[in-house]
Amino acid sequence: MKSDIEIAQEAELYPITKIAEQIGLTEEDLECYGKYKAKISDDCIRRLKQQPDGKLILVTAINPTPAGEGKTTISVGLSQAMAKIGKKAVLALREPSLGPCFGVKGGAAGGGYAQVVPMEDINLHFTGDFHAITSANNLLAALLDNHIQQGNALRIDSRQIVWKRCLDMNDRVLRNVVVGLGTRSDGFVREDHFVITVASEIMAILCLAEDMADLKARLGRIIAAYDLDGKPVTAADLQAVGPMAALLKDALKPNLVQTLEHTPVLIHGGPFANIAHGCNSVMATRTAMKLGDYVITEAGFGADLGAEKFLDIKCRMAGLAPSAAVLVATIRALKYNGGVPVADLKTENIEALKKGSVNLKRHIANLKKYGLPIAVTINRFAEDTEEEIRTLSEICAQEGVSFAVSEVFTKGGDGAVELAKLVTELCEQESHFAPVYPDELSLKEKIETIAAKIYGAKDVEYSAAAEKELRRLTELGFGNVPVCIAKTQYSLSDEPKALGAPEGFTFHIREVYISAGAGFLVALSGSILAMPGLPKEPAAYRIDVSDDGHITGLS
Question: Does pLDDT of 67 surpass 70?
Fold first, then answer.
């Protein structure tokens, strides 16, 4: 079979104005970036607010193998299949990060015949949103250090600077750095840190903001440091809101592109789900719900990460209520969770499949706690046997959930018609959606609720630093915000090698900090890092450009 990039480059794309026509938009509603990409204008978004909402469908997954399980591919294929059964569907996705594109996983625009195009643009610079976010983040850092250099009227305590610089690349040596070396005019010497752009608070703010006024209000609430009296110093105090907003003006607008089968796609924002809240922007999701009868969106990594944050953070803040959830699994991931080494996953192993299905069952049970109708689908691989598929179908029947096989990688929309029919039926059922914890719980109670109800932990252990910061943040008035737990994607626990469905373990919180502009607390667990590193054989080694300008090796 052809590679993803070969399939994408050979595809016949429609002009973006034609894609817009399918969902009732005109050329006046677009700000075009060439022939095949556009942003939706502010005037159009304001006008659409009067339209009724379509049904929102969340696509999530079980805990993956290190290579990922094709959740985005299923999302793309499902949107294409919806069109094949005569439904007006719009896809709402996150933008890929350059870090994974050149790191382990490759791109994030789907795969095979279920891709979003133009694939190379989307996976690389796209419309410049991530660059704008990076620039806005680092502008605040520069203004903060300059304020200290120019007399420090705000009495900022240089030992309590909490704002970090960012870069959208896996660069491990930037996790902990020393800045200000050189002469007196080069600033004060201090320890500093970088996070990857997709884990930055600016990314979260852009994805949760409802409009420019909300964006600016959130930017102003960012806590960049504390003063010598222990009081927060905000971006508003540093006079950073206006220039940051100016950098983010165009990035705030959702991007319109298309699938290989010309289904409309709004792709906007891109926080990681293991170290951030893992969902595309509220503006893109809401706009899609005004344009389509069915809106398919996905949240990063497994349901313990992306889905939990989608349901407990994004839906809570934006007032969204999904109609159904699709839980993606693969035969190989279930066998992996059953203890089979990666090298042996292509070999039929029914017993390992049954053993590893405890991971699937846990995610089903967790999604039911939110009151959502659920369908399970497998992203089928060539080595999956009929006996393995039959076994998985029986497991789903025992759990009381619908099941469908998806072959969208090889067949495009035709490979998910059964799933599309299942999902439309689920959307007609009554959803009893509610977050898993109420606002009034304390920060520790919220962390412990997620750890117990979603992860299966017996108790939570906090470092002394985390305990101290939780007390301070509660005293500062942040005790009622949602929590965003950063943890490994490979396990329900904070231990990457604890596969399946571990129970009765202790969950470890080593650090917490407030993202006051985003409106949630971040709790770092285990050894999770906010700036990933490159693997021994990064995907970058395979990427090149031909003499005639064609990108190769991107997947």
Answer: no
Identity of residue 248: L
**The model's pTM:** 0.95
Backbone angles phi, psi at 2, to 5 degrees: -65, 155
302, 304, 307, 312: CA torsion to nearest 10: -160
C-alpha span between 57 and 428 (Å, rounded): 12
Strands 190-192 vs 110-111: parallel, antiparallel or unpaired: unpaired
Beginning with the edge strand found earlier in the chain, give each strand of the sheet holding 223-227 in spatial order. Answer: 156-161, 223-227, 232-234
pLDDT at 106 exceeding the cut of 70? no
Q: How many helices (H) and strands (E) does the chain have?
A: 20, 25
| Confidence at 489, pLDDT banded by 50, 70, 90 | very high
Q: Summarize pLDDT for 328-347 with one digit per residue, the tens.
A: 999 999 999 999 998 899 99
Residue 130's SS3 state is helix
Please compute the mean of the pLDDT values over residues 235-257 and round it to a whole number.
98
**Could you give the 3-state DSSP secondary structure of residue 194?**
strand
- Tokens 């709402």, residue? 92
Rounded Cα gap, residues 324 and 307, in angstroms: 12
Q: Which of 309, 273, 304, 297 is nearest to 58 (CA)?
A: 297
Q: For 112-129, how does the pLDDT look when each residue is reduced to its tens digit (9 = 90+)?
A: 999 999 999 999 999 999
Task: Count CA within 13 A, CB hemisphere, residue 60.
Answer: 30
- Grade residue 272 by pLDDT with cuts at 50, 70 and 90: confident
Can you tell me which residue has the tokens 């689908």? Answer: 377
Radius of gyration of the chain (CA): 23
Cα-based angle 313, 315, 319 (whole degrees, multiple of 5): 125
Lowest mean pLDDT among 31-45, 90-104, 139-153: 90-104
What would you measure as the largest C-alpha separation in the chain, in angstroms? 72
The closest of 332, 273, 323 to 303, measured between CA atoms, is 273
The amino acid at 91: L
Report helix, strand or coil for 237: coil
Amino acid code (one letter) for 548: D
How high does pLDDT run on average in the chain?
95
SS3 content of the chain, % helix, strand, coil (to 5): 40, 20, 40
* For residue 142, pLDDT beyond 70: yes
- Where do we find the tokens 């003499």? 547
| Number of residues that this document lists for the chain | 555
Tokens of 243: 């220039």
In whole angstroms, give the CA distance from residue 223 to residue 232.
6
The enclosing H or E element of 105 equals none
Evaluate whether 360 touches 327 at the Cβ level (below 8 Å).
yes
